[in-house]
Amino acid sequence: MPELPEVEAVARKLRAALQDGGGPSCEIVDCGQFRPTTMQEGARAIGRRITAVDRRGKHLLLRLDDGCFLRVHLRMTGNLTVAPDARLRASTVRAWFALADGRAVVLDDPRALGRISFHEPGSETELFRGLGPEPFDAAFSLDHLTGAAKATKKPIKLLLMEQKAVAGLGNIYAAEALFQAAIHPARPAHKLSRPRLAALYTAIRDVLGAAMASAEQAYDRPGEFAEGENFPVAVYGREGEPCLRCAGAIRRMPQGGRSTYYCPKCQK
Ligand SMILES: [Zn+2]
């Protein structure tokens, strides 16, 4: 499942590929889909130009020249790329938008779980209600994280996964940030002191920052992408292996329907 770093990598590559975003060549002249559930009202984008590629949490936003936008969620195996020729599409392409210059923005998605939807101007606030601030925006401050933590008795890992405290953290990077901050994933959020939350705040940004670089290299083969690929994980997926800090065994426990990896000695 792509997390924020992978989705950001897709956004950057798409931005670079479109280069002349906003120009006439980025006008959408045709579109199609291969599963009815893949795209809702995609045809409404025809005749509009793609002016920018944004990311919000794990969502990609293709801005159109009239303020409307397409929202793309990659889900498990999706990748949004530019194909050099709209007529030549891989069999795993589930949705495509042909551009005026002959290229196409394609949703390549072997498992066909990705989603595209069309949205009117001004609908963004409502659409992303409940989604917390971006981890590298000023809105994500230590005060914000502290406020979110003090407001819930849930385990800190589950709070991080909820997207309200901060957008974009998933199972891998939440576990890695908690290890770096030496916080046990099951610790109730409201019991964490401000210094410990400060360590977590720093760790979230450190981990996501490092992951962005590795994701930009790794995320170009949809369907073959392994979680955390190229990222030097300390705990995720390492059950039974030695902790990089104390050499004790990394453990796995179920939490919120997912597996959480942690070091019982280093994380309290
Ligand atoms: Zn350890």
Structure characterization notes:
The protein has 268 residues and is α+β, with helices and mostly antiparallel strands. The chain has two domains: 4-127, MutM-like, N-terminal (N-terminal domain of MutM-like DNA repair proteins); 142-262, Orthogonal Bundle (Helicase, Ruva Protein, domain 3), CATH 1.10.8. Helix content is 26%, strand content 22%. The chain has six helices and eleven strands. The chain has helices at residues 4-18, 124-127, 142-150, 156-161, 171-180, 194-218; strands spanning 28-33, 39-40, 50-56, 59-64, 69-73, 79-83, 93-99, 104-108, 115-119, 251-255, 258-262. The strands form three sheets. Strands 2-9-5-4-3 form a five-stranded mixed β-sheet, covered by helices on one side. A hairpin with a 2-residue loop joins strand 10 (251-255) and strand 11. Helix 3 (142-150) crosses helix 6 and helix 5 crosses helix 6 (194-218). The radius of gyration is 20 Å and the shape is elongated. The two termini are 28 Å apart. The mean pLDDT is 89.
